Amino acid sequence: MAVKVEELLTADINQPARYLGNELGATHKPWDEALVRWVLTYPEVYEVGASNLGHIILYNILNAGPRQLCDRAYLPAPDLAAKLRSTQTPLFAVESRRSLTEFDILGFSLSYELGATNILEMLDLAGIPLTWQERATNRQNGQMPLIFAGGQTATSNPEPYADFFDFIALGDGEELLPEIGLILAEGKTNNLSREALLLDLAQIPGVYVPQFYDMAADGSVHPNRPQVPERILRRVATPIPAYSIGLVPYVQTVHDRLTVEIRRGCTRGCRFCQPGMLTRPARDVEPQQVVEAIEQGMQATGHSEFSLLSLSCSDYLALPAVGMEIKNRLKDKNISLSLPSQRVDRFDDNIADILGGTRQGGLTFAPEAGTQRMRDIVNKGLTNEELLRGVKTAVDRGWDKIKLYFMIGLPGETDEDVVGIAETVRWLHRECRLDGRRGLIFNLTISNFTPKPHTPFQWHSVSTAEFSRKQKLLKGEFRGMRGVKVNYTDVRISAMEDFVGRGDRRLAAVVRRAWELGAGMDAWWESLDQAYKAWTQAIDESGLTWKYRQVESGEWNLFEKEEEKEEGSSATDSVTDVTDVTDVTDVSPMEVGRREKEEGRGKKEEGREIKEDFFTSGPLPLSPSPSLSLDQALPWDHLDTGIDKNWLKIDLQKALEAATVPDCSFEGCSRCGVCGTDFGHNVVVDALPIPEFAGEFVPNTERKQRLRVWFGKVGDMALVGHLDLIRLFDRVVRRADLPISFTGGFHPNPRISLANALPLGVTSTGEIADFELTESIDIESFREKLAAKLPENIPIYKVESIDLKAPSANQLLEAAEYVITVASAGSLTENGELDRENAAPVSVAPDANWEAWVKTIAETEAFWRVHTTKSGKTQNVNLRERLHKLELVEQKPDSSTRASGATSEGRAVLRFTGSCRSDGNLLKPEHIVFMLEQVSQQEIQLLQVERSQLILGYG
Hints:
single chain; 33 helices; 31% helix; 19% strand
């Protein structure tokens, strides 16, 4: 049964269009024709989930399957979540509007260690038991849907969340999810039990069913029955760009653009980078597929921007050629290209040529560390010369704002390396001065290194006290430095990510209790103290405080200085004993007895030349701590990601020696263990000839024709806001390929002008928009093309040709006609006053009704009300002067007023015409309510509003 969403999306719900499921590209497959019904449940608000590329791709793939239906659900914002609970309404899928319990399977994306609390929130809102144990025994509402998770965190270490899911999908889902769908269809046909169905699913490579595995005392995981594999394989798929073309939301999303993947996987081998390890091998997409997907996608969606996605876009050697080809094909469309964070060593004029358009975006580079030694330890593969060359290229090509990512707390890091971050930025500032332009601005993000499973640094951690000390050190170095904005990650977030990310099954109780205490993922950004308190309380109540304290104080420390041992320090003196929780130190062992180096150290003054040994000093001799066994069992050892654990140990040893490993996509094999039958091999597309540049977009500012369109905004489109409507018209004109004229300047915009902003939630049959075109076309042809691309709830009523020299509809606007439905809710003395500071009660007979109240308003000369301007100024306004006409259309008793014996009729439909001018002289429906309350001394409720027409004054 469908949920009555329209009753939930009242005026107090922010951005109601999030929950409509009526976007361009929404599939809406028939419910009764589907055998298996999925919901892709994204545990973030709509603006994040609806723009996630993986979400879009899997949604399109599942709906392409026969007898498979895929709907979507998102984490509701707090306002709707509260209403769902207060009205006892279950969380629903946005397209079918059915409760999530009506579906066969729900798939959650788990891509962040602390994101599981949002998943529990969604399950609770849906009325679904939180754990697989509870769902298996719950018969209150019949068979519960299967609950599974996928995504990077789920693939990396699902153990902290194992109790919440029936199974985990490991790796890429493009081929895995359709295989799961086939097993589900067969299972439903054969009426298999829940356990039997899960046992069948466990035979699919890439499906991990936690209930068929038990945790040993050391945290390792082993099968509890012979029918399931000891190790579960990560799935690998080839990207298919065509499936990236899909949803076009009406509300502005986080990534409001078309995104197409050009390369999956990264073989750079950065030792801190989990995605680089978990997505191997690298697979380049054929350039022709990329170009066709972008060209078709931009036409189908109407987007004005597209992004090419990869972990390292610049390692896609065909990028300059592909980018230029797309730019040339779309050069008349005012289209811009953006790229995610890219390798600064590969940033050159060829890549600069394809970026941006008329809207040049920002650039993001990630040097990660401030000294060459540290970049070698982490295998960044970046020299200072390459860093300088890339930044200089950006500056020379017109960028004056550059974002840089750095990390602190990396293994082997000394204070000199930390200070090196500030020194590097100061050096770049000095070497990249802007002649005749405003100063170069660096936006820095300083993250705390959080060790991740399946990486060479998975055996390392840093104490929160050490992070805090290093942040303080950096803040002192950056103090007074101009042209730099620095953001730091809170150390408490980093500690909690580490604690959960490398935890075992015991942490399920922590995650659940943290959610019960209000630690949703959004809480970290809204009230960090509150979220941290909830997590620490949950840890305390679960009896795992000792474990968290180990993380806080640097549980696993890889490095100690060889020279310390030579000076007589024992290994156990410099490493915290992880078995003794009563005597821990707040100082990282790598800093104990740290060698004081006077040369190359000391306070660096701005403008001072950097010493040669700052960049060129050799690696410090380091060795693994003897108290740490690299052979100990880890909670994720049963997951076969393709990365050989022995190779991770070997690569760790190379890190200790500050030895780098080349990128195996372009040089020799590093023997990581991935390439083979199960995972495939690297697929690298060679660089292609770069097409000749056809020229930048030149906005066509010619104005050959102006067409005025009268249109409606009815049904659920009333919940789409004014700015979103403007964006919608821009995309519709692009999809319809209409010859729209553009404004001039640095940021040309299409010449589309709406006469007046319609309030959110108000329907209308009388809106007006002006379109200016670069060539004259037949009015009926224009109408047909525009209507074909508009949503059905934005009907076109009339199109007229208007003289180009005539004033715009906005300039001519004089008045608006509304039809409103109102109700009397009792006397003001009973219900309290709302906004009646200047109300002078008007005498009305005790047996007055709507007709009498309307007549009294018409006969009254003034209704004064205080109006506050946007600037905060107040002024007295006579609302009666703005009212042109008011009439009673219909009145009828309300059941509640009839039962109470009230003399006035309960509901009324009124029509009024009032001032509606662009100078702010407006009469709103709320003003009519205000006047009615003054004459009636009743509380009047505004139930429904429709704007029936906008009235233009032609002089």
